[in-house]
Design a protein that fits this description.
Number of strands: 12
Number of domains: 2
Helix content: 25-40%
Structural class: alpha/beta
CATH architecture of the largest domain: 3-Layer(aba) Sandwich
Largest sheet: 7 strands, parallel
Shape: elongated
Order of helices and strands: EHEHEHEHEHEHEHEHEEHEHEH
CATH topology of the largest domain: Alpha/beta knot
Strand order of the largest sheet: 8-7-6-11-9-12-10
Length: 267
Amino acid sequence: MGIERIETADDARLADYRDLTDVALRRVLEPAGGLYIAESAKVIARAVAAGHRPRSVLVQEKWLPDVAALALAPDTPVYVVAADVTEQLTGYAVHRGALAAMHRPELPSVAEVLEDARLVVVLEDIIDHTNVGAIFRAAAGLGADAVLVSARCADPLYRRSVRVSMGTVFQVPWTRLPAWGEARSILHREGFHLAALALSDEAVPLDAFRAAGHERVALMLGAEGDGLSRAALAAADSVVTIPMAGGVDSLNVAAASAVALWELRGS
């Protein structure tokens, strides 16, 4: 890695980190693929281990040894700046030591992601990045083989999603899913039973669904409040619910994903 110490926030080398939204990083700087921001040495290390390539790293002096321990290519620039410069650039206090501008990898096809999968999670239009990150962490920790996200779902590589997931967005295979008409055909062709987690009078309790012993399951999750769309529910083969107590009708979507994945693991 090449260490470069920078004194001011207006230095042209810091453009990737300066007041840019994640949409801008994807669409303006790198039209062929785009960038995303990874935060903390641990997350950067997981991204690098997954084969993602950093364009540069931004770090404060006291955290430089953590960055030096990463397996970075020799030509990767490491910009060392003061804490106030980092805050000027990003608009917030960076407490985790390092940021990296990472090149976005090309997403695999849905068929590639599903090839060896048995249990996959499907996220429809979940726009909260914290929930997306938490669901990826649950998927990694509880044995889901892949995650499929709708076109309008929040970006799993958004900085907050990556952080909340503890970098597990780099270890769980994922890709974008087409509209339900095509998506249902793809999933059925691969032998998946589509299970929509939703409130419905006709819903099957989660434990009863597990007992049915479906060989390959696509667990469908919708946004907070609105839940799954009508198109998603129409595409589903089963509607499944988590039995609740205490007058509570449902869980946060990330919590619900963890409960459902725990129940369906190894089924």
